[in-house]
Specification:
heterotrimer, A alpha/beta (331), B alpha/beta (337), C mainly alpha (322), B: 337 residues, alpha/beta, Rossmann fold, 8-stranded mixed β-sheet, 4-stranded antiparallel β-sheet, C: 322 residues, mainly alpha, MetI-like fold, 73% helix, ABC_transp_ATP-bind (chain A), ABC_transporter-like_ATP-bd (chain A)
Chain lengths: 331, 337, 322
């Protein structure tokens, strides 16, 4: 469906993924009601490719990342990892699958156990999957991993509190890479970091991708950093995918009004340009997905909205090679 | 164009006592804010930008103290025994502040209308009905839909962006001359951030408000500010006109910061990364604080550099204006360098 | 490469950490006093056979109801006086500490273990297991404790062991609730999620990642519960359902002394003082432990300490002279 047909087997295929949450029941006798947090999401990630998954709060981007990793149950659709359908794996099989796909988290301060040395933390995946017996036995491998992410060997014996946010994020990446995964889901890995350190981590992730042929699903809340790391970009809004395309197509020829709004909302560090830039009006707030209205979810904020949009939700249609949009007026 | 000077911060120094030792949160900060002007205060976490704002707003409390320098409002000091009474009359009325997280700054048990009205009843002596009417006007002015209905809502019924609008309404309710905004949009989504920044810009034009905008995002500064001060490790390292500094940054740190900020234009694949991290503020070594990370630092930099004029801005660097990151860096040089 | 890392001491030895902690304890005077008193009481209990001047059960009909030594008619042979059977009150207080501390410590240990297991299961498994376990806790909490004690004692017969069993069964719920709520919040912490995604089996997640978070809150609850147990033991022994003569405990002594309260106040005063001192000093020490194990509270305590004030004054003075 996307891009030119290729003979390479995608690392990850997501087909029509949907996730529901249950509401807390309001009354004592009321039944919990399912809320659709993610609705009919499809994309592929090929080896060595990065898919940027962009959306604001409530868009379902984090839910999508967790569903891929099988942390959250999918209500519908399929998740295919290296050709195997993993949507319904359970127990030991699921646990073994874990070594192939790893997670890098947003908060570098909370993602490492403060009571474990770096050696123990990075060696843990190796121990859990039975590759080594003890952290000491994994020392050489851990030192190699630390070197890979640009940390000195003596970091191994220290505790997390001795490290800064950027360094901790490197440790988190080293831990994720210990099992030589094919896919890394990075959930806003640089959002909590300072600007100058952000670049360090993004450059590191790019270098590692080239070295190890990793596939990334890179989750972000705006479009600025995604440009530097992604090959393809998918835009989510209120649980639905509104646009997916190659990076350059998204940035040069955005089709969906929401993508345009997102792009124009990113402040650019160039005063003359920033003053001149025209912001695409996008008034109002993100809709409440607990009480969805029929039609396009962006309708309440869209400058192009018509009756059609309010009545029926637009399908995702391929408008150019590898570029799909869900909008009645732009496809 | 010379305008009336509202606020002067003069070689301010703030220390915090901690178990690990004395933290020199701010070691030298000087700022001037003119009437109706927007000043951007940029820095990374721990650079002292928020502490500077707290000092101006009188929010430094134990274990922190102001150990040097002066803060003046319209030429009169806000510090010391004499300044204290004057400061009380200025703060809250002439100087207002908004914070990053609007939820924690709002009382969850009070309606929006009552919270908004409280300040006006206290500072301006409004009656309950007057305050309510004015609150409704203010909510309309900050762009909230159905302001009359919002008055009786509680903070948890509003979204993050709406809460920040309420905070802004509260801040401008006593018609301050200076608004200190400490990372006002960091917790918000980008499209909401754009709305709030637009609101701040329009309020400034309508009310002739001066704004100190504290942020780590250079893009936010570029859009809203006329002047900018860049902080690093408790000191201002560069200050000047926004266009000049973004066009020709003089300090290696400013240069690095600008080039490690991702842009939507351009085709560069790799971002510049400033290796290393900011120094500890406990017993910092003498000399330039950026030296350990600076590509053009020399032994001479172990002597603390003074603030000196360079190309229209003021820079704290012995080699101001040298293009620090050019050799071996995979980036197109910024325009004008 | 990093100034922050290198400015910190590399790996402080255990001894240095201990010395630092003792220094901090010394600065919190109330906590320090509490700690010293606890040590003294424990030492007294352990060394009872050597330091008690008399056999606590030895009766002496001639020397009945002797007042403490400093009062008229007193006798330096019985410093705290004697009871209605002529037994030495000081020796009874010293020996009484033994059973009181023994019961307190073992009850905290047993009820803590039950509570932690129940809380871990409820918090980690969630769902139906959680609902069922927590309803059991609710039922147990709402069941009158004294009724339960009467029931069990009447079946097993009063003894020190019965006492430990009874108090363990009626006091584990607080641990279960506390542990459950901590487990539920810790499960949301990113490093636990990272461990789960990594493929850690539940056993490892519970023991490596969740359990260490429980140690300090449990320590605090345990210490505070200890004081409750001491009081409960006193109450039950007072009713005659606890420790049985000739063995002794502070509660039992208070109970048997109550008939003589107007003619021989020392019979209930000294064992009563023992209870008060133990409970008070444990509370003072527990407060110190609570603050010290919470980094935020610890920094706050430092901010109000003399050292911090001295530090700030020095900084201001330096600024003036410059």
């Amino acid at each position: 469906m996307f891009h030119s047909p290729s003979t390479v087997l995608p690392t990850l295929q997501v087909k029509g993924l949907g996730v529901n949450y249950l509401t807390r029941s309001r009354g004592f006798w009321a039944r919990p009601r399912p809320i659709s947090a993610l609705d009919n999401i499809s994309f592929d990630v090929r080896p060595g490719e990065t898919l940027g998954l962009v959306g604001e709060s409530g868009s379902g981007k984090t839910t999508a990342g967790r569903a891929i990793l099988r942390r959250i149950e999918a209500a519908s659709g399929q998740i295919i990892f290296k050709g195997t359908d993993i949507t319904n794996l359970r127990g030991e099989k699921l646990r073994r699958l874990r070594s192939g796909m790893q997670l890098v988290l947003q908060d570098p301060y909370a993602s490492l156990n403060p009571r474990m040395r770096i050696l123990d933390a990075v060696a843990e995946p190796l121990i859990v999957h039975g590759l080594v017996k003890s952290p000491e036995a994994a020392r050489d491998q851990v030192v190699e991993l630390l070197d890979l992410v640009g940390l000195p060997a003596d970091a191994a014996t220290r505790f997390p509190h001795a490290f800064s946010g950027g360094q901790r994020q490197r440790i988190g990446i080293a831990r994720a890479l210990a099992l030589k995964p094919d896919l890394v889901v990075a959930d806003e890995p640089v959002s909590a970091l300072d600007v100058s350190v952000r670049a360090q981590v993004v450059n590191l992730m790019q270098r590692l991708q080239e070295q190890l042929k990793l596939s990334y699903v890179f989750i972000a809340h705006d479009l600025s950093i995604v440009r530097h790391i992604s090959h393809r970009v998918a835009i989510l809004y209120a649980g639905r995918m509104v646009e997916i395309a190659d990076r350059d197509s998204i940035y040069d020829r955005p089709r969906h009004p929401y993508t345009e709004a997102l792009l124009s909302a990113v402040p650019v560090a160039n005063p003359a340009l920033q003053r001149k830039r025209e912001r695409i009006a996008c008034q109002g707030e993100v809709p409440d997905i607990a009480n969805p209205r029929p039609g396009c979810r962006f309708a309440s904020r869209c400058p192009l909205v018509t009756e059609l949009c309010r009545g029926e939700s637009p399908p995702l249609i391929e408008v150019a090679s590898g570029h799909s949009v869900a909008c009645w007026h732009r496809s | 164009m010379t305008r009336e000077i509202l606020l002067e911060v003069d070689h301010l120094k703030v220390d915090f006592a901690s178990r690990a030792g004395l933290v020199q949160a701010i070691s030298d900060v000087s700022l001037t804010v003119h009437k109706g002007e927007t000043l951007g205060l940029v820095g990374e976490s721990g650079s002292g930008k928020s502490v500077s704002a707290q000092a101006v707003a009188g929010l430094i409390s134990s274990p922190g103290t102001i150990t040097g320098g002066d803060i003046r409002w319209r030429g009169q000091s806000l510090l010391g025994r004499k300044g204290e009474r004057y400061a009380r009359s200025v703060r809250g009325k002439n100087i207002a502040m908004i914070f990053q997280d609007p939820m924690t700054s709002l009382n969850p048990l009070m309606t929006i209308g009552n919270q908004l009205g409280e300040g006006m009843r206290y500072h301006l002596g409004y009656s309950h009905a007057q305050a309510r009417k004015r609150a409704e006007e203010l909510l309309g002015a900050v762009g909230l839909s159905a302001p009359a209905r919002r008055l009786d809502q509680y903070p948890h019924e509003l979204s993050g962006g709406m809460r920040q609008r309420v905070m802004i309404a509260m801040a401008i309710s006593c018609e301050p001359e200076l608004l200190i905004a400490d990372e006002p949009t960091t917790a918000l989504d980008v499209t909401i951030q754009a709305q709030i920044l637009e609101l701040l810009a329009s309020l400034q034009q309508q009310l002739g408000l001066a704004i100190i905008l504290i942020t780590h995002d250079l893009g936010v500064v570029a859009g809203l500010c006329a002047r900018v001060a860049v902080m690093y490790a408790g000191r201002i390292v560069e200050t000047g006109d926004v266009d000049t500094i973004f066009e020709t940054p003089g300090h290696p740190y400013t240069q690095g910061l600008l080039r490690s900020t991702p842009s939507l234009e351009g085709t560069d694949e790799t971002l510049l990364s400033i290796e290393g991290m900011p120094p500890s503020l406990i017993n910092p070594p003498p000399g330039c604080a950026f030296l350990p990370r600076c590509p053009i630092g020399t032994d001479h930099c172990r002597k603390a550099p003074p603030m000196q004029d360079w190309n229209g801005s003021v820079v704290r660097c012995w080699k101001a204006g040298t293009n620090a990151w050019l050799p071996g860096v995979m980036l197109e040089p910024a325009a004008g360098l | 490469m990093s100034a922050i890392v290198s400015s910190k001491p590399r790996n402080p030895t255990r001894l240095a950490v201990l010395r630092g902690l003792l220094g901090e304890l010394w600065h919190d005077k109330a906590g320090f006093v509490g700690f010293v008193v606890i040590l003294l009481i424990v030492a007294m209990a352990l060394l009872a056979p050597w330091i008690a001047p008399h056999d606590p059960a030895a009766q002496n009909v001639i020397a009945r109801l002797r007042p403490p030594a400093w009062l008229p008619n007193g006798d330096w042979n019985h410093i705290f006086g004697t009871d209605h059977l002529g037994r030495d009150v000081l020796s009874r207080v010293i020996w009484g500490a033994r059973s009181t501390l023994l019961i307190g410590a073992s009850v905290v240990l047993f009820s803590g273990t039950i509570g932690v297991i129940v809380g871990l299961c409820a918090g980690y498994a969630g769902g139906r297991v959680d609902s069922v376990l927590m309803r059991i806790v609710d039922i147990q909490v709402s069941f009158p404790g004294i009724l339960m004690i009467l029931l069990i004692v009447s079946v097993l017969g009063p003894s020190t062991l019965t006492m430990i069993i009874v108090l363990s069964i009626t006091n584990w719920m607080i641990y279960a609730r506390q542990v459950r709520s901590i487990v539920m919040s810790v499960r949301q912490v990113p490093y636990v999620e990272a461990a789960e995604v990594m493929g850690c089996p539940p056993r490892r997640i519970i023991f490596r990642h969740i359990l260490p978070n429980l140690i300090t809150p449990l320590l605090t609850v345990g210490i505070l519960e200890f004081t409750n147990i001491v009081l409960a033991e006193a109450a039950v022994s007072f009713l005659g359902l606890g420790v049985q003569p000739p063995a002794t405990s502070w509660g039992l002594d208070v109970a048997s002394g109550r008939d003589y309260i107007f003619m021989a106040w020392w019979l209930i005063t000294f064992p009563g003082l023992g209870i008060v001192l133990t409970v008070l000093s444990i509370n003072l020490f527990a407060n110190w432990v609570r603050v010290t194990t919470d980094p935020q509270e610890r920094e706050k305590r430092f901010a109000y300490s003399k050292t911090a004030r001295r530090m700030m004054r020095a900084a201001s003075e330096k600024a003036v002279t410059q």
